[in-house]
Design goal:
The protein has 17 helices and eleven strands. By secondary structure, the protein is of the alpha+beta class. The protein folds into four domains: 87 residues, Phosphorylase Kinase, domain 1 (2-Layer Sandwich); 187 residues, Orthogonal Bundle (Transferase(Phosphotransferase), domain 1); 71 residues, no CATH class; 64 residues, no CATH class. The strands form three sheets. Strands 1-2-3-4-6-5 form a six-stranded antiparallel sheet. Helix 3 runs antiparallel to helix 10 and helix 13 runs antiparallel to helix 14. The longest helix has 20 residues. The radius of gyration is 24 Å and the shape is globular. The protein starts with 8 loop residues before the first strand and ends with a helix.
Length: 467
Amino acid sequence: MARAVPKRVIGQRYEIREPIKSGGMGHVWRAHDAVLGRDVAIKMIRKSLAGDSEELAQRFRNEALIHARLTHSGIPKVYDALLDAAADGLYIVMELVQGKSLADIKNVSGGLPIHWTACLGVHLCAILHHAHEISVVHRDIKPDNIMVAVDGTVRLLDFGIAVTPDPSLSRLTSAGKVVGTYVYMAPEQIEESNITPSTDLYSLGVLLYQLLIGKPPFEGSTGQLMRKHLFSSPATPRSLRPEIDSQLDELVMRLLAKKPSERPEGALEVGRRLLSHAPSGSGYLSVPGLPELVHPTLPVPSARGNGKLTGNPRPEHRPARSISVSDRIAEAMQLFANGRVSEAVASYQELAEELGKSGPERAVEAQKCRIRAAICRIKLNQEQQALEELQIELTELLRIHPATHPQVLEVRKYIGFLLRFLRRFSEAAGVLADLHGDLVQARGSASDDAVAVRNELVRIRRQMQDS
């Protein structure tokens, strides 16, 4: 008589049933939760990788922490996250989604129906709006990470390389290591530049283009894809499929803009524009051969908007406050950490203005608040304004401090990185070369800042040669 194969159980409650998906980082399994009597999905890091790469293991832990912050119905819930070194190492227990992966239906000759594609896009925009509201950037929007569930809703999966403004959660990869999928990767992601919600919008543009046309805007080897995303413009969707509306054509091309500042203002704006190309009404959108989709809706903007800011934020009138300056700065920092970046800018500016009226003895504190406000603008895609404000503050700092003063070094670093982001390569190289020399003198050649600036200079020189 054949011997029964022993059940594989982890965490003393999850019985592994069958594989769902495999990737470079690990496996996703269907499992049964014996305690609650339900099926779940379990993502486990490969044993060989967990032992050999602490960075990869830390990235996996951070995925659980970031994923747990997300509460939108379009993102599978995290039920549990455990480290059981004696059994299977790191794993995340999540809601099991029943449905069909977009990867199974993406390559359709001539593209998918326009109204079905627009409907799917609206669902994704609602999910992205939620993530971006709390400053989570997915960084890997692609068909493999999107599912149409059996109830007609859309799910966005795999936050393994997502980033947040929280320093404890965002440094997930080594310097010089690009993560993501090149077919869908935004130029700033390739360049390892400032990652913002607009990075996800570019990937969404690639996805919509692929669904509408039947192939992505750029194809080729990794090197070819990198060059095309950075320097080439694809054929417009309408030139390849004339029945595409001119407004939809323009929206997709705006999403594919090389500069983040030239892309739409946010996922909510994109969703509203896509909504006009999706069928109206309620119930389900049925297309032969495709999963059914629920007719989508979009969230009402919260009181703080969608994290974008236009112009100079003006805080509402508030009564005089008795709490200390340090407590108010801590409040502004918390606003930023919570993704409420516009409010953080307004708070810093309000405090800077009040301190500026208090006489010369508060000038240093006022300047620190202005610098913090300018740095916050980077998260709002206001790179040019941030650069101009930091250059003004640097001039003031250099009147009273040497070039190697810690605050001066920090502001110079931001200025150099912003110049590179704005593709002012010669200016960036000059600023960062001088900065590198001063960092070596002040902190040593092996310091984190010196190494980061040296790596940035290498990237700039490479870009100058390629351009």
